[in-house]
Each structure stands twice: as C-alpha cells, then as structure tokens.
Amino acid sequence: MADLTTRLSKRVARDFPEPGSAQEVARIVGETSDSERIQAAIVLWGQGDLVRLLYAKRLADEDWRDVLMQADLADDDWRDKLDAELGTSG
C-alpha cells in the first residue's frame, strides 16, 4: 500500500469530508498504485462521490491508462493539470 502525497491527501480530505471518509478513501486509492498521477486520476474522476471513486479504482486496476484518460491526465501537460488541481508540490 502506497501513501498519498500531502497535496493529494489534502484533496481527498476536501472531497470526502465526512468523518473517517478521507482515511478510507486514501487507503483504497493507495492500494491501487504508487504513482501520484494514477492515484490523483482516481480521486479527481471520483469528484467526491464514493461510487465514482470505486469505479475509477476498478478501472485503474484493469488498465491504469483508462483512468488517466477519463481524468484528463493522459497528455503531456498532465503535470500542469495536476498542479492546477492539487497545488504545486514544492
């Protein structure tokens, strides 16, 4: 299981504010990949909806490229889009 980056953890807490939800979502997302890009794609596509998030996770488990496409993180500008969504990592 991979830990989420600080900036992704903050986004998870914002998108899933119910008590205990952020921790469970972080666990689910962390089981899928060590890549912040793939983890973020799952969270962003989830849009704060657990059902959507679980579907995104299932899709990423089957083929991580599909979840990148759905979250608009598949192109060369994915780093800029991730920074826009999560803030800069530096």
Report on the architecture of this protein.
This protein is mainly α. It has one domain (6-82). The chain is 67% helix and 0% strand. It is built from six helices and no strands. α1 crosses α2, α3 (36-46) packs antiparallel against α4 and α3 packs across α5.
**Helix-strand sequence:** HHHHHH
**Residue runs with pLDDT of under 50 for 5 or more positions:** none
Helix percentage: 55-70%
* Gyration radius, in Å: 12 Å
Let me know the largest β-sheet. none
Distance between the termini: 24 Å
Structural class by sheet pairing and helices: mainly alpha
Number of DSSP strands?
0
Mean pLDDT: 93
The outline comes out as globular
Topology (SSEs and partners):
Elements: H1 6-15, H2 21-30, H3 36-46, H4 50-62, H5 64-70, H6 78-86
Helix pairs in contact: 1-2, 1-3, 3-4, 3-5, 4-5
Jot down its keywords.
90 residues, mainly alpha, 6 helices
Give me a quick take on this structure:
With 90 residues, this protein is mainly α. It is built from six helices and no strands.
